[in-house]
UniProtKB/TrEMBL annotation, chains A, B:
Domain ACT as annotated: residue spans: 274-346, 355-420
Protein name: Aspartokinase
Any Pfam family hit: AA_kinase
CDD domains from the UniProt entry: AAK_AKii-LysC-BS, ACT_AK-LysC-DapG-like_2, ACT_AKii-LysC-BS-like_1
Listed pathway(s): Amino-acid biosynthesis; L-lysine biosynthesis via DAP pathway; (S)-tetrahydrodipicolinate from L-aspartate: step 1/4; Amino-acid biosynthesis; L-threonine biosynthesis; L-threonine from L-aspartate: step 1/5; Amino-acid biosynthesis; L-methionine biosynthesis via de novo pathway; L-homoserine from L-aspartate: step 1/3
Catalytic activity: L-aspartate + ATP = 4-phospho-L-aspartate + ADP
Amino acid sequence: MSLIVHKYGGTSMGSVERIRNVAKRVAKWHAAGHRVVVVPSAMSGETNRLLGLAKDLSPDADGRELDMIAATGEQASSGLLAIALQAQGLKARSYAGWQVPVRTDSAFTKARITSIDDQRIRADLDAGMVVVVTGFQGVDDEGHITTLGRGGSDTSAVAIAAALKADECLIYTDVDGVYTTDPRVEPDARRLSVISFEEMLEMASMGSKVLQIRSVEFAGKYRVPTRVLSSLTDPDMPLAEEMKSGTLITFEEDEKMEAAVVSGIAFSRDEAKITLLGVPDKPGIAYSILGQVAEANIDVDMILQNQSVDGTTDFSFTVHRNEFARTLAVINDKISASVNPRDVLSDDKVAKVSIVGIGMRSHAGVASLMFKTLAEEGINIQMITTSEIKTSVVISDKYMELAVRALHKAFGLEIAAVKV
Amino acid sequence: MSLIVHKYGGTSMGSVERIRNVAKRVAKWHAAGHRVVVVPSAMSGETNRLLGLAKDLSPDADGRELDMIAATGEQASSGLLAIALQAQGLKARSYAGWQVPVRTDSAFTKARITSIDDQRIRADLDAGMVVVVTGFQGVDDEGHITTLGRGGSDTSAVAIAAALKADECLIYTDVDGVYTTDPRVEPDARRLSVISFEEMLEMASMGSKVLQIRSVEFAGKYRVPTRVLSSLTDPDMPLAEEMKSGTLITFEEDEKMEAAVVSGIAFSRDEAKITLLGVPDKPGIAYSILGQVAEANIDVDMILQNQSVDGTTDFSFTVHRNEFARTLAVINDKISASVNPRDVLSDDKVAKVSIVGIGMRSHAGVASLMFKTLAEEGINIQMITTSEIKTSVVISDKYMELAVRALHKAFGLEIAAVKV
């Protein structure tokens, strides 16, 4: 008998009929003897509807009140799911984050979970119940409702699985797993049956929007076996089959398993890059630039600073394209005067493409195959950054699809690797 | 500087534009130096939408989960109102019932408030804030969310006003006060500028659906001066004028004030009556009948038992017409065998009409004028009950409007009484 956490996204909870299907699926797991905790998102469209009303009232509304409003979506869907489970003949009970409680810091609209009390959930599981816990939300030390930001229900589910030391956390979503790259760009993209935690982290952060990145961090920190699988399958499909579907995120590097060098190609379409030329190469320069950008609540993605020449250096970073204008304004208003760059170059027509693979650690030449492949397609590389298991390049956005397809082929990702 | 509680119904909160108007009105009160606590209902239609989803999933859903779902409507509208108030330049903060906390018993879907902690609200008022508190809901001792039942936001507002010892509780609604009777039935119906608590209690319970009856009980118990007034007026109307609009429910019997004999005509259109003929007249008989009815969660309105003859008596009561079939089933299945009535008579085409007035206490002949008036119109009285300040009759429902109009005229209600 295992303890399993299920998470269902907004699409899976999007109608009475779909909620009923979720209940049927949970009932199947329960009937097989598993203890189940379910974490639902709000019904699809609900969070947008609520926040749209708030935005109509005030374009920059107070975060605390936005959380008060947005948190209702999951509370309603959790109650509805509990009723659907009861209609399946199960004992079920729903809890809002504050009732568990799921404690967070006070960073409204993007709070972080600090602790989860498992007592209440455990007591209900011991009493034979299915427990439904709202995704996306918690409560801070002053008793204010907080939300975790978009996609936060994934994080809720993994965090609850960690707190309960669950045997597995199943993330049911509208895709059937993690692919070597986006199948809309490369039709030969292949579903991975297993992916390492580190690779998933890089894939998630790079725009393979299957899982919220913080949920992957949580999964890694607490070593929660987490599986991404489809909620669109027949809820009556055999359990043994369902238990092996999707993509499992693992933490064990199996010695016998021959790791693929590269597991996938991630990309991010809507990037903008900014370079400050000839800024003084002295301690604190990065902070004087990025501190101001962070202050304006702009998320920075890639950051590059190269070797200085003659006491000055060129400092580059990328932001989401939507933040491009605001970022330039911050540079003009708050950075240029103190940092005094020789020039500011910018381009909001760029994309980022990355190859991700735990096998890169032990295989030289992976990056050079990437660069060779792009060169053969005539694609100019504008920026390069690397981490242990990832190499990213910034290129003109018009070449993005071409680059993804060429790299997918060059690394042989359309063929199932030996490890699968 | 007064402490004022405002309550706004679902219609007043029904759109972004209307929420903005509510905020403007509150801002006006705040600007005049008043400390304001606002209790909003859910946006109109929202509670029905949410409970409709629940009903689609299960026709008899668990009360605890229904409350979990329904409570979200007020939480969202409270957050939205706080944002609208902030957009008016005010400091504002919203609280769900559990955050205050508003403590209730555990009777899900119809909980009763047991206590309200005023500390958090007071601290925010002291900090210059407008405080928004969700209507309709609270939290029980185990931390489960509860709701107070339909119209419960009125009760929330009055209870919060009582806890805060507020100077006045203003119930903003889509009518401009309490009338001598329903103007849709009697066009000459007149708005009362003052009504006694006892009269309001009788009017509210009799179908003048301006205020939830429990809110009036609360107002009486804690002597909260409560005013019913329109939310549809221009929010910028002069404050002095607004402070005198609507109908004030009072607790002081002003000696100098010449009380009208009858203040209003209440009626209830959708009644059904049931009579058990010839049941044994012995202790416990009323309980053996009504206990079973209550068990089935059917609300009984009028109850009549007359003098017994030959050891048996006739026992009558009325229920809402929607409960008629269920009530007859309860009698057949659970009551007839033990109580053994000679016959069961029933009629679901009846209405109840009542005259209400604190002046009845000291004026003989009020009831006889009522009976004379009905007789002159050829209306047969089927049942009569009286209380100190009310006389009610059950008549055929087809005569209801005629009875209301005739009584309104007979008691001179179209003319403002001396006391106004």
